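Try it yourself: sequence plus shikimate-3-phosphate, in.
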Amino acid sequence: MPERRPLKGLHSPALRGWATVPGDKSISHRALILGGLALGETRITGLLEAEDVLNTANAVRAFGAQVVRQGPGAWKVNGTGVGGWRRPEDVLDFGNSGTGSRLMMGAMATTPVTAVFTGDASLRRRPMGRVLEPLKLFGASYDARPGGLMPVTLHGAGQAICADYIVPMASAQVKSAMLLAALNAPGRSRITQNVLTRDHTERMLAAFGAEIAVEPLPSGGEAISITGEAELKAASVAVPRDPSSAAFPLVAALVVPGSDILLKDVLLNPRRTGLFETLREMGGTIEVRDERESGGERVGDIAVRASALNGTKVPPERVPDMIDEFPALAVAAAFAEGPTVMRGLDELRVKESDRLAAIIAGLREAGVPVQELEDGMVVEGRGPDGVPGGGTIATHMDHRIAMAFLTMGLAARDPVGIDDAATIATSFPDFESLMGGLGAIFESVAG
Ligand code: S3P
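Structure, out:
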């Protein structure tokens, strides 16, 4: 276990200037995995070089693909072709990453190899059955700790068969694992989602030459058909900047008086921009500039100015489009006037931490009243100068809880401490220096 690194966010002067947050985590995982399954040389630029993604790179390598770093964010992957993965020589350690582990389970499930998946204490508490059970439809089998917990031994199908599966929860990871498994299953598989979730896997599969068709359903969901025994061809992937990382400087700029910043080249895929929409509804001045297409995704520069915020009610149907952004939204809501109601958050219970519980406990520790609901919370906003701060927030090995409460400290009356900043390296290793460059003040706490 690495040492804990306590840190405080301090009342800071206006944030100014521009910054580029790191590459998108979801797209980075997928670029490495599809590169590892494709034939030929995949070139990736802008890859997120954070612990979660580096663990995926190691796992793709362990299955036999060549994965080489050529420079900052520049990687090349020489894949084995679909069905060409070999048995890893060692246990695969995915650290903190649900996405890396679950997508890799799908990607190997229809190839006759066996692999052992494990992770850190947080990942070993997260449910894997949601992916492992439906992978049995393709012919895979597994052994896990009770409750479908890691360590997991997964045996890829000897003779894979195609599958027809309805994803029962709003999860892009489950959908993606099934789509990746379908790649080596003869015939056409159909994966249905009743709620739309991030579609990076579908987009990237098409770019790598898979036969994939997405049919909208009258219910508002989608049926995705994909042909197995696919021949994926290497592609170039330019990874846009991660809107889930942009969330923290963005919220900081809204709540620290006088701030005015620009965040460049941010991914604007509509399945990822629910936070921006919600903050605008709360009165946030958030302007998208130079919106353009890059590598099959919408990107743009986001200009943010400090704003007076009002509480709001987040429409539950928007939740999947901002599923990782509730820690950041809770901070904005604390500085708003009036209550902010967030419901339909059941999936937050199974993130890197029980994120709903961690947010509520953190808000209370910092003196912000919050009402807990079974599937959400109501944050009683204290207004721009009314957040007391103080205290030390328990991060529970959750990078987004850590970044959110450090952000709160920048505008609260008293500093806000977190028990461990080391966890931020899973998704945003440069968080402190990037925020510091804009004017944020953090202070180390003697351990
Ligand atoms: C992700 C999907 C979401 C999200 C996670 C990344 C992905 O998880 O919370 O950070 O890249 O597919 P779920 O599929 O569990 O909702």
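One thing you can check immediately is this: The first strand starts at residue 7 and ends at 10.
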